[in-house]
């Protein structure tokens, strides 16, 4: 596997793609948005921005699952965690996300039971082993994680594991990209589209961007060479005056995606309106658990009451997620907001813009 | 020997059962002329001008992991803290906090492991203490060890010795201990074999210091990993460090573990590694000395001290760009996708 990865980090090949970008880039300033948080990490981890011509600016989009999770959701999770006999199970980075008043990590000190899972099926296993407890899995993420969560719900239903439920805040990507474009707040010249989301959905979900907004889209892999090649593909589209959806990540992404995964997702979930942190409610951009599986919906299973949401004053995570501002524009950044004590969600996940800036950029300046 | 199977609160009472545990278990394995009288303290004699004194508490889950256990860790950790200060480790104290119900067979395994590691490091366990806490009030066993060593004559290590141009050396693969613990916890569906690098390093440090004059500073990159220790070297200083990603020795299995979880091997703990900053003219000799130890065959120069980027650790990335390496902040959590 590593040999396979190393080939996509080959310094000679990197150099030759960078030379091609330099050679073909017109020099006229362009802004490209990498939608996915995984791409943001690659850009900073390998120092990709430094290799590019100055006038190619990369900006982060709303594709970090933790970052776009609404504060109200976290408040709800914390309230749930305090219900007797409830075990919260979650992907790792969620436990640090601050809600209005606390985070799961802080609440752990007050005795709540939170367990980190690598896969939603781990949570189902915990449910099987703890039949006197209620196991709630925090369903967050985009089309990438939703099929696996759908599979876990289906498995629990098929096997009668009724002490398992999911608090779904899953989101789907294209609607958020449309909202960003319609807001008119940013002037984009290209999208580096999320590779793993596309592996599930296929690449046609971006057709409307190319067609209606005339913006080139390239579905990209996550290695340095993938990203540089994607940037080169966008530069070439711009030079030719094209706006089409291209697939750079052909080794993982089929044009029509993973039809089995999509079918599973659509069987368990249905489109609902959902709140995106910093963006607001986007109609039809969330995945709620459909009627057939209501008994696995933590929202229905538990009577969860929370106090009104309180946002940390001065936090500009929303503007950052919309690509309007960068982390260093924030008054709190690196002063009272840092990975150790995050005030906003972008400082939490390793894929969050603020955390990435903090880790790789702040000390670089 | 007539022993119960499990530790009870009576073993920590200071009475008969405590004495029996000390004599039948601790003394049996740790025994030496300084410990045997079982006085309240050990009387130590040395001609050295300067002593080095350190302490470290050890908590690890699981207690037994591939390549080691909490006992080996407790001795190695303290020995290594003394060793990297330029001392010859001599005497160790051992304080144990044991949870009621802990299996005595496991305690015996830990004690044997401590003795074997102490022999390997040529140190004596000369004093100790045992407390038992009620079930649920500890996670099996916690071990505190303090250690005293004699400073090697003429040695003066420290950040103040570091000069631009100095070389940075590590004595082998990065992140093995952290990876072994992640594997042993079985929290993630990862399937590979990796042993912790946990072991005493004083033979290496003594060999280096007795043969070379140009060693500026040494440190063992334990919790927080290589990234944290490198940052400790430069923090608030007038120099920086440049590390070459292509030269970092990382086992493919460790890299393979980190890739899907989103971890950085530079943040994984090591328990048998030394980071050495040394006069560049002596770097090759240091490598030769290190490589004379079979465990250190993968020693290499990974970077250098620079006059630029003061206070910062810069990584020359594998694709020829650069980025900053920061200290580990918070606990490592696997990413979502």
Brief descriptors of the model:
heterodimer; A: 365 residues; alpha/beta; Rossmann fold; 3 domains; 4-stranded parallel beta sheet; 16 helices; globular; B: alpha+beta; 60s Ribosomal Protein L30, Chain: A; 7-stranded mixed beta sheet; 4-stranded mixed beta sheet; 13 strands; 29% helix
Give a verbal description of the structure:
The complex is a heterodimer of chains A (365) and B (337). With 365 residues, chain A is an alpha/beta fold. Chain A folds into 3 domains: 2-66 and 183-247, HypD, alpha/beta domain 1 (Rossmann fold, 3-Layer(aba) Sandwich), CATH 3.40.50.11750; 71-172 and 257-301, Rossmann fold; 317-364, no CATH class. Helix content of chain A is 39%, strand content 18%. Chain A is built from 16 helices and 12 strands. Chain A has helices at residues 2-6, 11-24, 37-46, 48-51, 71-81, 104-108, 120-129, 146-158, 173-183, 195-201, 207-213, 224-240, 259-268, 298-301, 317-321, 353-361; strands at residues 30-36, 56-63, 86-90, 113-116, 134-139, 164-168, 170-171, 190-193, 217-219, 245-247, 269-276, 280-289. In chain A, the strands form 3 sheets. Chain A has a 5-stranded parallel β-sheet. In chain A, strands 4-3-5-6 form a 4-stranded parallel β-sheet, with helices on both faces. In chain A, strands 7-12-11 form a 3-stranded antiparallel β-sheet. In chain A, helix 12 (224-240) links the parallel strand 9 (217-219) and strand 10 (245-247). Chain A is globular, with a radius of gyration of 21 Å. With 337 residues, chain B is α+β, with helices and mostly antiparallel strands. Chain B folds into 2 domains: 9-151, 60s Ribosomal Protein L30, Chain: A, CATH 3.30.1330.10; 159-325, Phosphoribosyl-aminoimidazole Synthetase, Chain A, domain 2. Chain B is built from 8 helices and 13 strands. Chain B has helices at residues 16-30, 70-84, 104-121, 176-185, 202-211, 225-234, 252-261, 283-291; strands at residues 51-58, 64-65, 68-69, 87-99, 124-133, 141-151, 167-170, 215-219, 240-244, 275-278, 300-306, 313-316, 322-325. A 7-stranded mixed β-sheet of chain B has the order 8-10-7-11-9-12-13, with helices on both faces. In chain B, strands 1-6-4-5 form a 4-stranded mixed β-sheet, covered by helices on one side. In chain B, helix 2 runs parallel beside helix 3 (104-121) and helix 2 runs parallel beside helix 5 (202-211). Chain B is globular and about 65 Å long. The termini of chain B are far apart. The mean pLDDT of chain B is 94. The A-B interface holds A 1-2, 5, 9-11, 14-15, 38, 41, 44-48, 50-51, 65-66, 91-96, 116, 118-119, 140-142, 144-145, 196, 224, 338-340, 349-351, 358-361, 363-364 and B 187-189, 246, 252, 255-256, 259, 261-262, 312, 317-324, 326, 329-330, 333-337.
